[in-house]
Amino acid sequence: MSFKEIAPENFEESVFKVIGKDWLLLAGTKDGKTNAMTASWGGMGIMWGKPVAFVFIRPQRYTKEFVDNSQGMTISVLEDPDHKVMSYFGRVSGRDEDKIAKSGLTKVEENGQVYFEEARIAMVCRKLYAQEMKPECFFDKESDAKWYPNKDYHTMYVMEIEKLLVKE
Ligand SMILES: Cc1cc2nc3c(=O)[nH]c(=O)nc-3n(C[C@H](O)[C@H](O)[C@H](O)COP(=O)(O)O)c2cc1C
Question: Of 49, 84, 108, 148, whose CB neighbour count within 10 A is largest?
């Protein structure tokens, strides 16, 4: 099976399902090394006239070091109905294990970025904007209290989707 590039406006799947139910595998690459983590919060849309994906990464994630030290990241959506692989990438840190090697996923390298052969959707993204969330910006104080008892606020990354690939 091979990938086919499509225009973002021809993407027909529900982003609510893809992000919230299937989950995303975010991968950052720096100095030839790649790390990846699961994310189930984020979105896809249009910003500054470009097709974008936006994701949220907490400061303690090892993947953040990779994303902060490179031009972009990739987003892969795996064929993983029971969430076995995605749960692993969301439970274990790349600081402790080589998750990509242990999972058996196959890297596809493109312009210094890495996504995965096993994906059914893959996006190659370029960072446009990053901003750390701040407690004083919450109108909804309940969400602040519920999700950030340790004050480990996510950084939001807005990224241009340079290439959107789907499995043929
Ligand atoms: C379903 C699910 C969704 C997650 N979503 C996010 C997210 O959106 N942002 C985030 O920072 N961490 C999220 N995580 C947690 C990271 O995936 C997890 O801490 C991971 O082990 C980090 O790996 P790393 O240290 O190798 O980067 C999620 C975990 C799961 C299981």
Answer: 108
